[in-house]
Amino acid sequence: MEIPPTNPPTSNPQAPSIFEPGTSIKINADDRSLSFTISRCFTPITKSVVLLAHNDEFSRSPVIIKIFDEEVAARALESRGAPLPVDSFGSSELRDPEPEEPEGRAARAALWEEYYYALMVESFESERSAYEALHTLQGTFLPRLLLTGLIDFSDSRAIHPPAVVLEYISGVTLRDIEPNLLSLDVCAPLVSCIDSFVEFGVFHGDINPGNIIFQPAERPVRAVVLDFGCAGVKVEGEDEDTWLFTVNFLGDSTRIRTYLREKGIHIPDLPEPDLSHMN
């Protein structure tokens, strides 16, 4: 999740017009409806739509709204040449040549819509469930999850995509930070936190330099992990060996050490986590 500069641009030509700065967006959550004014839509949009927005009655500080919108995801992924989906959600037919007759093309379009909708629901559930499993880390190494709900497009859309509202963390990403601003005092606790995810039954699945924020940017004293849209949460009864194979294959702990090493920070491997309480 990209963090905007101190003075973000007032508009963004890459953002869909419904997410332009100054427009309002409504979220229905439980028994209430909240309207937020958009300050910025982060680009490039890779899958979910990430907005910086505010509602002074909800929060005195700006918030991040992450929207899992299948229409926007489809445009973003297709523009990047994303690979065709594997056989899931009935998507094997999407690998067939494009039908010539109108009925066939309409059926193909419906399959694509189904695929992208399922992809976004899965990503939303990953994000929500990971934050819930890691609730004790919210406010320190993770942003606070403030709200979940559905975006209300009124009558203009048949599907109202799910969204999460998160605490806004300003700072500088691991990708952009100058190496001389990093220290073991900040990086070692970050690595320990990521190592501990498995003890909570969670893997992040997308540890990269854009998903780690250091705060404040000028002299960091805190590191925060963002973007759990590719995360996984261990379910009751799941085979322990299979779970640990997946955790090791995705390599959250290895990845963060590698990226920090590239910035000149070397963190030794930590002892194997105690997973006895998860049996």
Automatic annotation (TrEMBL):
InterPro entries in the record: ABC1_dom (IPR004147), Kinase-like_dom_sf (IPR011009), Meiotic_Drive_Suppr_Kinase (IPR052396)
Pfam families tied to this protein: ABC1
Domain ABC1 atypical kinase-like, residue spans: 164-232
Domain of life: Eukaryota
UniProt-recorded name of the protein: ABC1 atypical kinase-like domain-containing protein
Lineage: Eukaryota, Fungi, Dikarya, Basidiomycota, Agaricomycotina
